[in-house]
Amino acid sequence: METRLIPTPRSLDDVEIKSRDLIGQGWGKLERFTFRHRRFDGDWSQTVTRDLYTIGEVAMVLPYDPALDAVILIEQFRTCGLYWGEATWLFEAVAGIVDPGETPPEVAAREAMEEANCTIAAPVHIATVWSSPGGYGERTFMYAARADLAHAGGVHGLAHEHEDIRAVAVPLAEAYEAAMDGRIRDAKTILMIQWLTANKTKLG
Question: What is the pLDDT of residues 107-125, one digit of tens each?
């Protein structure tokens, strides 16, 4: 039995991309990759074709007020449920796309003000994750940050981005319960709330 999780050393030398074709572009782009990769036994895999949808890199932040022991979450409509015939207004952490020339912490601070009307202190990095690695190229930088939430909240968003965002400040314990009972259904936000519950002393 393995006693430690040690990643297998890999590089792009272990992937042979035979073709990369753009098959659709709108807000994001849909590409078709045909490739083969090195197997664990040292041989090469058969040729594989996979479609990958990518919008870009994203920064997410969970603002936390130690004085109130509270966090701020946002609620907004998301298209994900339409495929399943659901109306999906979801609770999530604050998030935004990283534009050229920006750093993820800068985006976290900008979006906290735009979406929740709060100013955050220096963000603490939680993790950098792939949202759905089988077919989604989005890479997400996740943070928690101290904030004064006494006057945070309300309805916000940029009109030219079609945003209609409700920000709510709630006790961290309530956010954790919501993550456990299904009221929060965004996987990244659940992970962030769990991390903060276990590590809030790192934010003071």
Answer: 999 999 999 999 999 999 9
CA 35, distance to chain mean position in Å, is 27
Burial class (CB in 10 A: 0-12, 13-18, 19+), 204: exposed
**Does the annotation count 161 as an active-site position?**
yes
Q: Are residues 134 and 99 in the same domain?
A: yes
CA distance 154 to 200: 25
Catalytic residue among 161, 163, 174, 177: 161
Short-list 52, 56, 55, CA closest to 19:
52
Q: Please write the tens of the pLDDT for every residue from 8-48.
A: 999 999 999 999 999 999 989 999 999 999 999 999 999 99
pTM here is 0.91
For residues 50 and 65, membership in a common domain is answered with no
